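quick one: flavin-adenine dinucleotide bound model?
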Amino acid sequence: MAICVINEKCKGCKLCIKACPFDAIYMEGKLAVINEKCTACKQCIAACKFDAIEDTGEEEGPVDLSAYKHVWVYAEQRAGKLMNVALELIGEGRRLAREISDDTKVYAVLIGDGISGLASECFEFGADGVYLIENPLLANFTTDGYTKVLYDAVKAYKPEIVLFGATHIGRDLAPRVAARLSTGLTADCTRLDVKVSSYIDYANKNTTLDTSTLDPASDDKGLKQTRPAFGGNLMATIVCPRTRPQMSTVRPGVMTRRERVPGATGDIVNVNVSLAENDIRTKIVEIVKSAKEIVSLTDADIICSGGRGLGDPSGFELIRKFAAKVGGVVGSSRAAVDAGWIDHSHQVGQTGTTVKPKIYFACGISGAIQHLAGMQTSDIIVAINKDPEAPIFEVADYGIVGDLYKVIPQIIDEWDGADELYEATVH
Ligand SMILES: Cc1cc2nc3c(=O)[nH]c(=O)nc-3n(C[C@H](O)[C@H](O)[C@H](O)COP(=O)(O)OP(=O)(O)OC[C@H]3O[C@@H](n4cnc5c(N)ncnc54)[C@H](O)[C@@H]3O)c2cc1C
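yep, here:
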């Protein structure tokens, strides 16, 4: 649909500007003008007292998909440090770019102030180039500021795909940018594919998906974005066939980083920034770090998780002792969080954190699908459960059937280091 201003009727009262939630109307002299941010929500039509805005009913022409090229990764940094998920997505973006065509590139998009030094790290983890968006007003993340500059950059350079980490910031920024661009966004993807054949290959392993109607020789290079749906009971694959860019968020730990190539270089594009203080409606008065225990599940090599099988909250004392002994961090199932035994920041799973440690100990955890969604790509899974039929044993590399209160103290006594177990299993 197209919304337009009837110049003869417009009185320049600006009521439409106030009514527009998308900042899509501005004044040119005494006339209102609608820009490309318009989503045809029609709020302006309702607000106009002079019937000076109308919906022409005409469908907008189709988006020229061929005008969009290359894969972008929002390289999230905080206080000048790149988030792990950004490096994971650069590797994934590079894989997708090569599947699209030989001349498709992956670009990292760095936003901030004084962060150009991070470009080399992006290159070393696989970026062909970096778009650098720097301005003093971007020193700290603000939804308005980052949305505006990223939106402007996408409009100017037209990437085909834009990936974000599903962090607090990525989950805030990605939908804002997608809405302004009037394009789709798939949140919390666990798998991304470009080629139909590689998608079929993956989907055939998942018996709930029927791929018989798909032609592996198809040259469809649209992004196939797979994510859990219906409480994790089935995997949905979502496409964005009519608009560009195709946008996804991916949880930290789901994709694997590429091997670092020291000294790798690439192109840097300095993006012109048009940003004024009044574009940002919030003001950061002070940054206060959370006083809670900091749990870095995504970076941990070893995780010792406890579930409802602990029986009561004091069971986590044993899990903490276990984690301290093996050099790990404490995780948990949702049942333990819901029971109030431990903070949500420790929760692993679909509605908690996705992890990929070298060793994951599941202690008194049954292995519900929502828990598995967050830990089944761990290198080695060790399950301790007194029920030999518990589903966790289906994904475990080592299963110990027994009472965790007897088994864990024995492991603590015997533990000599993780290296031997890891080497024996992975190599
Ligand atoms: C939309 C949705 C999202 C969800 N998201 C998550 C999520 O992110 N993460 C998550 O974990 N869950 C999630 N859940 C909940 C999930 O479905 C399960 O309810 C939960 O994972 C069960 O936790 P549990 O394995 O600790 O408990 P239980 O399923 O009760 O299992 C306890 C296990 O402990 C064993 N056990 C008991 N005593 C002992 C003992 N002394 N020694 C050894 N073993 C013992 C039992 O045999 C049993 O297998 C979600 C559910 C929904 C609907």
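The CA atoms of residues 99 and 163 lie 16 Å apart.
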